[in-house]
Amino acid sequence: MPKILVLYHSTRGHVEAMAEAVAAGARSVDGAEVDIKRVEELVPEDQARKSGYKLDQAAPIARVADLNGYDAIIVGAGTRYGTAASQMRNFLDQTGGLWMKGALVGKVGSAFTSTATQHGGQETTLIGLIQTLLHHGMIVTGLPYAWEGQQRMDEITGGSPYGATTITGGDGSRMPSDNELEGARWQGRYVAETAKKLFG
Length: 200
Fold this sequence. Notes:
alpha/beta
C-alpha cells in the first residue's frame, strides 16, 4: 500500500490547515499510509512570536532523509513574492544527495500553496515547486478540472490545475474556505489513488 508524505511550511496556520485536508483526502484511499511533517522554521523564535507566527503546530519536523521512505510527496508552502517561502526552498535545496542517487525518481509528487490575494503568485509558486519535483524525476499530479470547485464564480476561492490553493487576505485573517479545503482533500485523494495504482 502506498506511503504518502504531506510536507509543509506554514507561518500562520493557513497551509497547516490545507495540509491536514490534503492528508485527510489521501487517508480516504483504502490502504494508504499518510504522514504529515513540516519543515523547520528559520525565523528566530522571539521574532516569530512578535510577528504572530503559529508556532504550536503538531506536525513533527521533517528530515531530508525522510523523503526516501515515501511513494508520494505532497509539498505545501505559502507564497513569498511569487515563489515558495524560503523555509521550504531551504529544505528542498538540501535534497541534492537524494537527486544524485535518483532516490525520488518515479515517485508521485504534488504541490499546494496560499497567497494573501487572488493574484499574489499562487500559480508561479506551484510551478516553482513542481519544477523541483520534476528535477527529481517525480511523476507530478495537480488538481484537475475534474474537481469542479475551482471553477466556482459565486465566491472568491483558490484552486488551480497546478494544485490546491487558499487566499488568506492581506492581514492573514481569512482561513481556508470549505471549498478550498475540499479542493485540498480532492488533491490528496487523487495523489493517493495515483500512488496506489503505481505501487499497489
